[in-house]
Amino acid sequence: MRSNSPEVPDEQRKLTRPAMRLMLKLTQGTALLFCSFTVLATPQIQTWQTGNGAKVLFVPAAEIPMLDVRIVFDAGSARDAGLSGLSLLTNGLLAEGAAGKNSQQIAEAFESVGAQIEYDAARDMAVVGVRSLTESRYLSVAIESLQQVLTQPDFPPVAYQRELNRMKIAVKARQQSPSALASVAFNKAVFGTHPYASPISGSKESLEKMTLEDVRAFYQQYYVASNATVVIVGNVEREQAEAIVKTLVSALPVGEKPAALPAVKPLTEAKKIVIDYPSAQTHIFVGQPGVKRGDQDYFSLYVGNHPFGGSGFTSRLVDVIREENALAYSVYSYFSPLRELGPFAMGMQTKTEQTEQALTLLDQQLKKYVEQGPEKDELAASKSNITGGFPLNIDSNGKLLEYIAMIGFYDLPIDYLDHFIDNIKAVDVDMINDALKRRVHPDRMVTVVVGKQQ
Amino acid sequence: MKMKSIVGLLVISTLVLGGVLYHSKEPVPESSDEAVKSYQLSNGMKILVIENHRAPVMVSQIWYKVGASYEHDGITGVSHVLEHMMFKGTEKHPAGEFSEIIAANGGEENAFTGQDYTAYFQKIANDRLELCLELEADRMRNIIFDEKEFKKELEVVKEERRLRTDDKPSALTYERFKAVAFTNSPYRRPIVGWMEDLETLTVDDARVWYETWYAPNNATLVVAGDVLAEDVIRLAKQYFGQLPMSKIPELKSRHEAKQYGTQRLSVELPAKIPYLIMGFKAPNLTSEIVGTEQEQELYALEVLAGVLDGGDSARLSKNLVRGQEIANSASASYGMSARHETLFVLSAVPNEEVAIEVLEFALREEINTIKLQLPDDKELDRVKAQVVAAQVYKQDSTFYQAMEVGMLDTIGLPWHIKDEYVEKILAVTAQQVQQVANKYLTDDRLTVAVLEPLPIESNVAENTNAAVSAGEQNAQ
Fold it and tell me: Which class for A389: exposed (0-12), middle (13-18), buried (19 or more C-beta within 10 A)?
């Protein structure tokens, strides 16, 4: 395969950055360059609030007899408060015992109707949800089971101990993955004392310290209605959607929205972290704190990153590192926006003997780009790619759900999708240059290198 | 969820094999109209269209009947290296231009190589089909094989191999497991190729491979999305219709040699977590057995995999992850869609302090239980309910639907069998599940591989004072 998809530093997966995951390609001048879509109907998001304060976003989609519902809480690892891994463990225990049913009974309930439960915790978000058929005899079972998992988890000690042990093995497994070692070290160095610095899946020490009481307390504090965003996409009418939401969350206590996260501090100097590891390749991350959701520079930086390392095969990094010098299979850069400043990261892996050469090229490219910004035609190509490719990002229920969850959770404008293309089009070279110079500091980067040291 | 559809398992297991199948994400399913319209050009090229007017987008895929299983020792990996070379340009569209044009038009494009196929795709606005076909037709016949470009790309491929296999203990173990499990089947070779073979691969190897297999009469175009079949066919005729046919070599039929007793291997390398793989040789679906009684065995094997690992309520999770609490994770998989005999694979990661022998014994016990006691109806119903639901969920992805028919057609199966998949799964009985367990999960079909971790020599040196900035240091 020829893909150049990024190895995401740290375990933040699908949840946090739908828009940033566009690994598209851009271009130079061809006759076809500025063709854009005729008329794109963006889905209209309906929104309301439940009696106990949960925010709801709903998009009806009648084409397929299925429904996706997801409840998002501000209960990701940013809320671990020193007990790294607590958010993920709490989330993972919801379906391990609820309303008096054990793990087996819960799994059987979902699977007997072909429903797929989802649960995950990332930096900012913790989610619980289900994909189900909409035929009522199936849907009712799926929603009832989800309601139990969400509002009546029992946290049985047996399940707690088992899942804790499984997490310890996952932590141990990081020690045999140079990319995992690199990403953990990268986040630690970039975020310092900020909660974003700790691994989502915990550390050996934090997991030793954890107790079942910590899990219960975490659940009680964060899995509350005023901290919940409910997202629904699928083949139901508004009235039915309201009933489903009511069933799901009305038993959640109102609770409180958690306090704002501390701001991420900028780096004051360059740091280099070297980890000796007996791998064939050296894994490299270079980066710094980047951008937030809703940030005034978001579109400038997103579009600005695109021709640099965000557009795959038409990006400068791929061109120089992979195509010209054959130093890596995968090389990229991205901004991963979070509630507070998420990482700006450049990543690649190269045969160990080539490490210095690859690092030098990466550094030169970054300096040059921050100094000079994109060429006009590069920018035009990027904008054309992003706007032209936008319909691909909302062409399925699954993708819509991701987008809408992001919009709801981060309190972005409800018409975010309607204005996305205009926001991209509005970015010009000057805005990018200005944002890059203010926000990206090549002389104050964290560099992480994991590989064989001579 | 292990059982998605007829090709779902293949996708998953190919990923497990450390294969070269693209994408880290599971294919997201998308079309409500299941009808596939087919057509053949006079030069033998096949065209399959799935109309789905949900969103103004489409996916275009070209599938070639060639992949790692077509290779022979000494040139392993050539199909995949050729896939990379397909982006190196033609006279008409020099290197990089293909990607640039697709990107300028808001599209995404990539390619993937499997055991039995090589495929190229674009996801793009529905009014850009002509552009995709023009570019694909051009590179089907006109790729430039420049030695310098080839050598560079080969280095990229080696980096890919290091990334995906060499530095991943479980992927490396799986590669060696397959090399032992199969005696003479081409599936014993890795898709990405042995590093030793990559070292000696030449631009001529790639060119010969291209000239041998890349021709309209060895390719299938699949287009799915907001398009009209008549437009697709018209444009396909326009761009591919003039391409000359090739004489495609006839492959000899290959059959895996008989195995005598259980085969074992241990893979010792720096790692932290042991890993166990148990693979039983199992039949693949061929066009000859479609519609016969023998075919039902394969569906029974799929249901058997579901009984063991069709979700969190299935036996491996229930008994080994929970229950005895000896496995950190455990899985079972089987995929019938392959050109050659395949594997029914169980794999597991032990919990702390659990000996690998204990885990192997427990997996064998699970198999023995099925051999001796009929699985109960509720269990089978759960497996089947998930298959029925997955069939609906897959409508959420046009890409996946295109992939399903493209893959079936390319491995030589009638693509309409995908429509019978659910029905055939639903027809499987508890007795059949027990019968196939007894017939196929036997010691003389078994290969057991164990990853035995050696110590990792490493230490962490952290220079937080950073008197010298990373940038300055690099510039020296």
Answer: buried
